[in-house]
Amino acid sequence: MTSPSIDTDLESKVKDIVTDILEIEPEDMTLTSRFKEDHDADSLLAIEILASLEKTFKITIAQEQLVNMVNLQGVCEVVAEAAARRQ
Amino acid sequence: MTRTSGDRTAEASPVTGPFISTWSAVSAFGIGRESFSAGLRDRKPVVTALDPDQWSAPATEACLVPGGDPRELLGRKGTRSMDRATGLAVAAVGRLLDDGTGTRIPGVDESTALVLGTSNGSVRSIMSFTRDALTEDKPYHVDPARFPNTVMNCAAGQSAIRHGLRGPNVTIAGGRASALLALNHAQRLQRSGHARSVVCGAVEEFSAERAWLDWHAHTEQGRAPLTGEGSAVLLLESGAPRGGAALAELAAVEVGLPHAESEVTAVLADCVRRALARAGLDADSVWAVAPADLPGTLGTAERHALDEALGGRTPRGLLCTELLGDTGAVSAAFQITALLSAAESDPESAGRAGVVTTVDREGVVGCALLRFPGPEHGRR
Amino acid sequence: MSSPRRVVITGLGAVTSIGTGVAEFLGGLRAGRSGAKPVTSFDVTGFEHAQGCEIDDFDAASYVHNLPLREYGRASHFAAAAARMAVEDAGLPAHDLRQARSLVTVGTTDGESRDLDRLVQQEVAHGPERMDPVVARRVPAGRLSVAAARELGLVNVEAVTLPTACAAGNYAIGYGYDAVRTGEVEFALCGGADAVCLKTFAGFYRLGTIAPERCQPFDRHRKGILTGEGAGILLLESLESALARGATIHAEVLGYGLNCDADHPVAPNEDSFARCVRLAHDNAGIAADDVDLISAHGTGTKANDVSEARAIRQVFGDKTPRTVSIKSMIGHTMGAASAIAAIACTLAIREGFIPPTINHVETDPECDIDCVPNEAVDADLRVVQNNALAFGGNNAVLMLGRYDTGGPAGPAGGHR
């Protein structure tokens, strides 16, 4: 996937959402730490993250994108891409 | 599937049916069995002023469980999306299964069942979810984490998940009769070999949504009690005791469905008579009664039924509604724990029976008969 | 207590999107009819797709004679109608039913959530003080079983609603089986009922589990469930009672198993479900080899079908019986699902056929079962297994058998 520009503001908002849903401290998550393997996420939590991002950023994310949303980096790219598509 | 008589000959116990070995309650009196017993002894109604910022209910007061929010009850982990009903049930089951030192009580094994009564799960969870579907930008902008809360077996399922109960997991919806129907279900699971021990009880949550529904549905009933909530559970065992002393035998559960309110007295009186007959007891052996005690005509009909069935005798009366409010689906469970609690400190209960009766607005009436161990056997 | 009694099914009542009434439902099963069409029971604006299996021609008044219909919600109407049909199908005089001790047990996922949808609409539009009190009174889920019992004029009855989500129908039938078997009741009317509602559609849609067009259980390209509605009620009585009154015996209830994953609120656990299947076999006194057909939970979601198929293979090994999902035809009818499926199993046993899994193009190799694609087939069935899995990790498996007049059902010629 080509990476649209991801600003730190977006990254920090996304991180807040994800760490809140996964019930972990923000400092325990890096851009590349994996939700499932490193933070005990499951498929319901993954959909929760997707749903929360859609509402917060007023974007639409296809379910198929879940395969790319495995870490913070991947999520930010998906969000940036969806936001760009909306504009 | 009656047990062979050899099961407990060494004990010489009077208990022959399934028996209650322990119980717990999360109520407006506080968390746990001791708080419940103390509250019942002091007989001081517990009333909370409702914070209008938190609850936009058609009332200014209710009988709330202190610290009844799931996060306060259970801590932060895994409670982010948990609803109040689920939190109350998980807390009550947790208290029941813990011997007080963090160790699981005996009598609970891989096949232990959970049978939990509820009126309608969490109507707040269901209605908030639909509200989101109707008011958010998209109708599917609902919170997926809260979808399981909108299904009525959520409290039982979560209680099983958090406490590792892998036996039959049953939810019963029977309004005020829920706990009696749950007890009946529990003993049938035992009789048919699906479970040896059953965690059995009920849960009800307070919410503005529930209060509004009640307000609309029952305005004609006149002055209603405050809305109450909580969860009460007990361990029903069969066979030789493993979970501790037999506090009481579940001697009988009888339920019926009157056609009309005018028949409530006759049908309920018949239930009580059938229960006594099934247990081989007469009205003189009844030490105490714990009725549902609803205001209005249903409460009157219930009192008449007890008068009729007990031939005008007036055993000790244990009233919960005036202390804990209208606790809906958990009401009969609280009535049972009130009997168990009172029997612990009342020597008059020895060798005698306690009766729980209920009258649900939707139609079901019924009773449970508990028999307490005799003085000659002590409390094993 | 006297020795346990054998329990038989003598009455069936079905309200489904492929036919209301047992004859019509049977016709639908044989033909592989689809109940799928655009959802009309709520405003679907904003959803990208909204197919469902609704019942659009149900006229409660033509089945329900005694209940004040306005005071009960749609799921209660379904339950009462199906109960009435089951009693009529059994040829059991209402008077005889009323004289006996009975059990009415109705499983459900959503109770009257259709009415709760409506109350929330009123609240959003006009404020909570303007909700309709008549609709508010219809909400308590306990009313589903009360409606069925009241319709039949039952007083000496235990009326109980089991909201154990999508396994509720099997729970209810199992409960009825136990109560008749031990002699505590003479008759049990048991099954499940649910009505399509916005709440549940929105929830499954959000999870990404609603198929855009059709439900394709075990298909490689399956895309999810279609929400459906309806009711199924079975009349159970002892074999002795059925023989004494000369009733037609459709099938025998052999036993059932219940357990809980105690693992995840929505994701199935295949090991736990396999354990439930074994519990059911033990309770019924049969071996896995005896099973001739499995009526799968078979929702058509990615997760369910593969977990369920793996659990089936755990228990049956390479000799997996044919495994069909009638959800391909009637959608996911939630708490009614396993009750309606139990009726389908009963009809399959009685009529000697297997209803198909429709909409099937290519079996998912990960599922690897014979789902009897698209066309019903003739089959001699002695023992049939009816699967159900639910949110909360609630599993329930029901075992049904053919009743042969020559001797007891079951392959061992008398398993109890």
Automatic annotation (TrEMBL), chain A:
It comes from the Bacteria. Pfam families: PP-binding (PF00550). InterPro entries: ACP-like_sf, PP-bd_ACP. Coiled coil: none annotated. This is Putative acyl carrier protein. The lineage of its organism: Bacteria, Bacillati, Actinomycetota, Actinomycetes, Kitasatosporales.
UniProtKB/TrEMBL annotation, chain C:
The keyword Repressor does not apply. One of its GO terms (cellular component) is cytosol. GO terms for biological process: fatty acid biosynthetic process. Pfam families: ketoacyl-synt, Ketoacyl-synt_C. One of its GO terms (molecular function) is 3-oxoacyl-[acyl-carrier-protein] synthase activity. SUPFAM superfamilies: Thiolase-like (SSF53901). The keyword Transferase applies. Keywords: Transferase. InterPro entries: Beta-ketoacyl_synthase, Ketoacyl_synth_C, Ketoacyl_synth_N, PKS_Beta-ketoAc_synthase_dom, Thiolase-like. CDD domains: KAS_I_II. Belongs to the thiolase-like superfamily. Beta-ketoacyl-ACP synthases family. This is 3-oxoacyl-ACP synthase I.
